[in-house]
Description:
The chain has a seven-stranded parallel sheet. Strands 9-10-8-11-14-13-12 form a seven-stranded mixed sheet. Strand 2, helix 2 (43-46) and strand 3 (57-58) form a beta-alpha-beta unit. The chain has helices spanning 13-23, 43-46, 77-88, 104-110, 128-135, 146-160, 191-194, 208-216, 247-258, 311-326, and strands at 3-8, 28-34, 57-58, 66-71, 89-94, 124-125, 140-142, 169-176, 198-202, 221-227, 233-240, 264-266, 288-295, 300-307. It has two domains: 3-143 and 311-326, 3-Layer(aba) Sandwich (Rossmann fold), CATH 3.40.50; 146-307, 2-Layer Sandwich (Dihydrodipicolinate Reductase, domain 2). It contains ten helices and 14 strands. Bound molecules: NADP nicotinamide-adenine-dinucleotide phosphate.
Amino acid sequence: MSYTASVVGASGFTGGELLRLLDGHPEFEVAQATSRSYENKTVGSVHPNLRGMSLRFSSPEELDSVDVLFACTPHGVTMDHIDAFREAADTVVDLSADFRLNREEQYDEWYDGHDRPELLSESEYALPELNRENLAGADLIASGGCNATAAILGLKPLFDADILSGDEQIVVDVKVGSSEGGAGGGEASSHAERSGVVRPYAPTGHRHEAEIEEYLGTQVSFTAHAVDMTRGASATCHVYPNGPVSKGDLWQAYRGSYEEEPFVRLVAGGSGVYRYPEPKAVAGSNFAEVGFEVDPRNKRLVVFSAIDNMMKGSAGQAVHAANIALGLEETAGLEFTGMHPVGAP
Length: 345
Ligand SMILES: NC(=O)c1ccc[n+]([C@@H]2O[C@H](COP(=O)([O-])OP(=O)(O)OC[C@H]3O[C@@H](n4cnc5c(N)ncnc54)[C@H](OP(=O)(O)O)[C@@H]3O)[C@@H](O)[C@H]2O)c1
């Protein structure tokens, strides 16, 4: 059986990635791709890699009736249009932050409030490594933020294995590529301004701090840097556990959490050039690489996590969650392993 899908906000970066994934998915057929700016233009005119797709952008005001609607729109759009989205589709997967947090007060604190707080308890967080058991049959799914996804994937095994209990100091430092800012990223993401930078852009108070805290149940100190790459988010987490932890303890913890996970690769030392996670190694794929080291001298653990922000950090995560929600093969449409060698992702 195949399912029909709409991509709302299909002219943007994550929308383009969703079209690419759904076009190659054995169980999905793309019925509609919306854009107000490019109405009636072919999707290939905006996404050159999709020139072979025979589909034109249409207006988000006239939604087709489909099985799954993926909303790839800026923060605030889905909460404003959620009734229309749910009327058009049995399952809505939102890539924005609109339904990621669980309480209205969090939106008051970290965003500009929430228009439909009564729906927050209905949504399921899309990250399967964290919330697989609640995704089956879910009809409102909130895909995670890319920085938060990288950080959560890196840190979660430490909580699963009780190496951390929640009162330890955790510092998360994320480096992220320019596509995180979307197709209309603005001056800071223009080539001339972005080229060559390692620029702290959110030293404190980044909104993803709230998301990490929500899903790990502990406070983290988060800083983000904009760096000179197109795709990728790379999280380095500095963790200060209360007692001694060996590299063997870490292998056991990370294998325990991820051995069965189809999209997590453990990369923690060894030989060669690629000894720890790097965004280059996962570019274009739905894989996350996670690794770790022990620093006994400073009683510190260092955890690394690398994802493609537009795949595991958004469109790939959204399709993975939809696969689970619909009872499809989890990995369907997501098997691409990445490329090597590859230029700057
Ligand atoms: N980029 C990333 O790495 C990333 C990672 C995780 C999550 N996200 C989240 O995913 C969402 C999309 O991000 P993006 O990077 O793909 O953004 P983007 O490139 O700026 O694309 C936004 C899309 O939404 C459409 N749109 C804007 N306002 C709209 C409205 N009021 N009604 C209907 N459509 C509207 C735009 O097309 P028209 O204006 O032509 O309609 C465009 O297609 C955001 O919420 C973002 O925070 C992004």
